[in-house]
Every structure is written in C-alpha cells, then in structure tokens.
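To fix ideas, we quote verbatim a fold written out as tokens:
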Amino acid sequence: MGSYRQVSRVFKKLIDTNKIVKIGAGIYAKASFSETLNKPLAQGTFGQVCKEALTRKGVQWEPGTAEQEYNAGLSTQVPARTVVRLKSRFRGTLSDGRRKLIIEKQINAR
C-alpha cells in the first residue's frame, strides 16, 4: 500500500483526467465528461450515486417520505430532490456542487 501522499496524488490525477468526481469526504464516484456542460459528471443520477455510496459505507437507509408516498401511489407529485431517511448513523454530506443529499431527521439527530 502506498503512503498518504502517494494515494492523494493518484486521486488528484484521476480527478484531473475526469475519471472520478468527489461527492463527499473520502467518497468518489466514477465520472464521464459532459460535452454540453463541459465538466465531468458522476455516472448515473445523483440519487443513484448517493444511495450506492451510503450502501457501500454500510449505512442503513430508506427512501424519503415523498418518494415512498409516490411509489405507493398515494401521491402524484414526483419527488424532485434526493431525500433519504437514515436507519443508522451517518454524519457526512454528499453533494456534487449543485445538488446535495437531504437527510430526513430521524436517528441522525443527537
């Protein structure tokens, strides 16, 4: 395994070549370059990337109230923001610059 400086250098090189994007502290996602926006974007939707990151970190979560109601057919309003309800503790933030993962208050509050 490499030293901290070597690993940091490799991550910086991958970010500079648009192979990955940073979405949180120590959390990176595969990226593809968008010709229209002229910048790298995470592969998949922001919601998919955040939910996969939470799952890989071992954080238990479920969709937010609005998404659950929409999926159950109780609401016709399509949820526009990525909202999750945590079942286990996670204090980090996930964002890609424009969008931010919103966490409904439940177990995460102290």
